[in-house]
């Protein structure tokens, strides 16, 4: 559609034409996993076929445009080896909107705005004098009637007829004339005898005028019939009377400096409003206009016409009269979703207009006889836009892969920001606020806490998108008080018409409501309606919230602010080494784990024939398991098999658990025994006290993987070399490197350890005679290279889990041994692929033969090699013919009188031939890689990537949180024996501050604590769905069953003294998560390090190895204490006193103890700045100083 919009492109003189025929997207060179490994983009080659028509000949050519990124199975894109998500955009729908603008002198001004998908915005608005004006793109202003004349209502009569009509009245008696007083004339009344005008058109008839009409023997008169006053007044002020005059008047306003000619005016206005390339309402806009104006226009009528404009003005007049209502722009009936395809096509459309312009210019410059289509089309314009969209676009984001829930939520996210969307700074409160139309479509809870609050949202659990891009939500149909098993998806504007009952309304066995009246929603109202009036019912209480919020048990008992934090913090939970499913869940854990793609599920039924740590085979189908693979968030994916050898599995059954899952359910944290009490001030505010037992058991231990990369380049001074022969490095530092200088897998590394040894040539310097002699004796290798090895940065230690090497091959420099090795590799690859191809050919023969048994062939089958006839035409196929099918060319199979069977066979052939073609391509690719090496950027000879896995135990300073927004930082890790303990000796795992509950109003955590305790004792797990979960009575029953105190409180003893605490303590099991804010990643200290170039002050931040800022308020603190020397050294030698820094180093080396500060560099910067402003400032030393 996009290419068809631009092509054909004709030259300025019309002699040449470039036409588009079709496009072709080929198979990508590498699959998604390979692209990640090689840091490439997962994309497919894109070609278009063009035809160039010259005066004497026609040229056709397939033009390579570039590579177009492909979406993976899970909805992501792989760009330069990184997984990215293009977030769906929530934007204002094209169509029409009616608004109340501003109040001038106590009077409301209403407007109607026509918003196309592309083209000029048109706005109709009344002014203070009740004249109807039209604005084009909010700039140019003229009378609406002038604009209507352009669209076919050229005469006044046409306009009047469109808005009411003209009535011809026959006058039979004088009294009848007088009765017309107050009516408006549609034409001038002329006295035929005197030729004088009695009354002008648009004038109201008075009694005097009526009498003169009768006296002048006027017996018929044309009057306006219910034409609105605003239209009459506008017509009176309209100076144009014809379509041509209207064209010129509009042209004068749009092009004020240009001389107005009719042709120029027509060209400009026709381009603006009558050309689909420049003005397009799209099917979405037409649908919305039809719904609002009650029209029935075809959805492919994308241009403006008189019917649409008249309908818009009529509706606006209705709003002014009080019969119609204005629109709510925040209603989801006026906002729609722009998915990735539409976003990309909008960007490409902009570049295609440039392509069109360039092609036209080239047609007028080039000698067209020698030109081919590819010479005219500048494909770089298209590829650069595609690359920019995916790599740098505002809505193309680095995928959040902290845990499976974070991935799932990122894919379901909606943003109101981005191109053509809102601006964060200008977005007001209304657009961010929760709206009643969000019910079941957008989650009212899950949104960021910062400046993006309300602008970035999440889809609700059951929400979907219809063909026009509007959000829909499912409802069960209700007829005559009975709920049917028919589910319908309704958009927000359609839903407004219906009365909808709640999902938890009580029903009997036959589906009838138990009560005569039920609570229902109607638009933004909550009503008690008669069951006969109910038309729909919610499908589930869960449909209100998103997946994240739906995972919070007892969400309905939490304050909304804390629920928001709780649902957001689940996405930050670090996947643990030993995850555990919650004792108290919501029932959504299994489905969210399955839909996140973290699990390995059986694609079809079968028997487990092979199983090991890296692979599961089910009846020939292989499932590769990911072992310690790195995610975007540096967490590790480690899939663990859960089936055993010879197990029978069904389609969709769980084969292996993934990251943060247990037994196929989401497991983001651990169930821990918690007590709500204060403990010696260590859990003051939101601090958390934990038991050493959690560290001993590795309950919250997680594995993080760091990736380090090194490239050997071809430089101006010579090639960089990866080697273990590194100058000035001892044997101890090289012990973990292999003979090529690359660290071995399994080695333990610490900050400063060498991962990859690399030397680079030094820049040439003039050598002294002595150096020349030494070099002549000992060879010149050692002296002319410098050590540029890849080392482990500070703060990282762990085990090497993977090393990946990509290198380019040079046939000239290859040794005989390397050639031999390549030949051997080629042989192995060919053998491997040959067996795969044989299996596919066998599969093809068997499946085609199976379908053809008992059928008669129209044409015979020939041997694929020799062409000899194996099966003659007319023969009925039997079981014995399978051996012939294995040798035959099956692509020519044609059977007698069974189109359905022929279609099935063709489908089998297309599928398997596609697989064969793909396998052949992969074989060619692998053979090419053996011959030429890996694909690397220009100038790069070798790239080595090292993965270091670090095990992080729980420690003081780590952030933890529950599911109710109850977050805190670990303040102290207490020995197990010192923790408060139960009367039976069981110590607590965690102590939380009870003051964190009342002010936060997240009571859900207390209910979870009690139910969790009962679940642990009973050895069961409870599912308590959102808004439909366990009541307080249910919890009490569970506590009673578990023989626990109903109040959930128990007397605890102090681990220090062994004495009982004064008060009983609320205890139980709560699900706590470790969040991705680890102390290890935040901890940082600087002794010496880099300085800023201009100010000479230390840099800031951990990444720059910077210092801590000693700001104005900190200076006040030292001044208050009178710490003069401390203050002086902080402001001079420890900051930007360059001379003093050097001196203090010297004094420390000499063992002296002196501080001699000089002028700070920032003072010099100030002087230079004053000099740049034209003030000649000098420093003069005082004589007695």
Detailed description of the structure:
The mean pLDDT is 86. The longest helix has 37 residues. By secondary structure, the protein is of the alpha+beta class. Helix 24 packs antiparallel against helix 26 and helix 27 runs parallel beside helix 28. Strand 3 and strand 4 form a beta hairpin. The chain folds into seven domains: 151 residues, Rna Polymerase Beta Subunit, Chain: C,domain 2 (Alpha-Beta Complex), CATH 3.90.1100; 179 residues, RNA polymerase Rpb2, domain 2 (Dna-directed Rna Polymerase Ii 140kd Polypeptide, Chain: B, domain 3); 147 residues, Rna Polymerase Beta Subunit, Chain: C, domain 4, CATH 2.30.150; 256 residues, Dna-directed Rna Polymerase Ii 140kd Polypeptide, Chain: B, Domain 6 (Beta Barrel); 101 residues, OB fold (Dihydrolipoamide Acetyltransferase, E2P), CATH 2.40.50.150; 95 residues, no CATH class; 89 residues, DCoH-like (Alpha-Beta Complex), CATH 3.90.1800. Strands 21, 22, 23, 24, 25, 26 and 27 form a seven-stranded mixed beta sheet that branches. It has a six-stranded mixed β-barrel with strand order 40-56-41-55-54-59. It has a five-stranded antiparallel beta sheet with strand order 8-9-10-11-12. The chain is built from 33 helices and 59 strands. The radius of gyration is 40 Å and the shape is globular.
